[in-house]
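request received
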Amino acid sequence: MVRSVFAKAFALTLVIFLLGVFVSNYFAEQRASFFLFELSKVGSSLNDAKTTLLYFETLKDTPDFCRNFPFFVAKFADRVDALGNDLTRLEEVDAGSLELVELKKNYTLLNAQLWLYLVNLRRQCPEAAFDTVLYFYSNLAGPQGCVDCQKQGAELTALRASRPNLYVFAFEANLGLDFLDVLKKQYRVSALPALVVNERKTLQGYRSGQEIEAALSQAV
Amino acid sequence: MSLDDWFILSSTLFFLFITAVYLILFFENRGQALSDPAPKRFPLVSVVIPAFNEEDTIAGTIRSVLALDYPKKIEVLVVDDGSTDRTAVLAKQFKGVLVFSKPNGGKGSALNHGIRKAKGELVATVDADSFVRPDALRQMMGYFADERVGAVSSSILVHEPRNILQGIQFVEYIGMNYIRKNNDFLDSLFVTPGPLSVFRKSALIKVGLFDEHALSEDMEVALKLLTNGYRIKHSVNALVSSVSPHSFWELFKQRIRWYRGALMNGRKYAFLFFNPAYRNLGLFVFPINFIIFGILAVLLTRGAVITLGGIPLAWDKLVHLLALKGTSQASYVGSLLNPIYFATIGNFFLVVSLAFFIAYFSVSFSLSREKFRWVYVPFLVLYLTVWNILIGLAFFVGLFRELGGVSRKW
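response:
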């Protein structure tokens, strides 16, 4: 009788375990799909904006384009921010999953495209007054990790809240993307955290809000 | 998954498995669980009450023993173990109660003193701070029809819980009664609790009475009986209420003594671990009790590390949230509260564990004939959380004291 009790309890525990694995995998996939969907929505909007910019570059017959750009840019920045929040939550609950690395790469590339779009926009519309900061960080532990990145991230958040025309693009430095390697080489990034201000000045190691403000005013 | 994740997952599955064993065991035996066998005869019972500085409760204990509803005369022996208060004076005021005074030698020695003087075929031991219900002894008698039964344990309730600590102990004791009944089904009930247990005197003499050096003499004597081929049964209807520690320090000291006593017994009866000759006791009940304590101790350390590490992280999140403005803040809150991020394997097992915990206490309450009241909910929540930290900590201290060879006091 007792043996059958142990067998039943074992079977019940096994069923619960398998159910747990199934349910959590199911929701992990749902989370990834949700994130990809959000990513694709922003991606479509960005393509739309890039096409508009291409049209402006090519035909130059839309005089209102440069006047309307802040609205487009702010809208994108908010949506990319929201994606970043979702990515942070994904990192908390699905840490270590291979799918997460791919999602991060997609997010990083989208972020990079938005940055390039802004750079291009600034060239086409010289009256556009905004700043950009490329922020290289790492979530890894150990020698490739970054002790001050969390502090630096908080500093940038506070700065961004006080400067509506500042756009911060955060890049996880160790994702293995060729594009990031090119960027790091171009801006001589060798230590983390690192900040590239308005594509001109590179700051390495933790920087206070005041130091970043000073760099922004110099690298106009 | 990290090593930490594997540890948490395997610990959770281990606890779920044990809870499942006990729930299934209970439901398959629920017919026997709720009733005790009717007694065929009522032998002479000697009630031994060991007492050391119990002037606050001794009179109430004796009164409850004298009020026992038992068809035959009961012999009542109080053993004053060198009290420095009025325990002996108060005990002597009761007619027909034999009071023996001896130099202080510990609970085991006081019990042995009383058992040697006892004339009964059965010996009931009652702590001097416990109060037996009138029908308790009668409920336990039926089990002794089986000659292999060496002892019968009772269901303990906390006497008049008055503060939060006693409230938590109240729900804890109710859970323990359920575990005891299940261990009875497994023929592995390895504690004959001090508040009320009845022993076959011949069995006690055969195994050499109580160990006078043990810190948990009630566990030691039970293990001695079991390893000598006796059975120990549990009566769910034999109720006794016991005064429980009312202050944190008193409780902490009690638990250190319990766990240190358990560790001493673990060492003394190490041959039981995973020994198939002792069936369920050796292969399941005895080892899991020590594994549980080990896991709790590790979980305590881990919990402390995570809590300490989590405080700055939570603070950073709050600072980040407050630094954000407008839509950025709304989207951050949105992602924090999005239900899709709560459907993780950890939370799944948390919900399942909670369901098992509710089932465990529902059955425990019904077994102890205690009506569940909503006022118990906060105690259950504290039992599930803070309590386990205290238990883990007391286990650690007990372990270090035992390993360090600190002198033993009861």
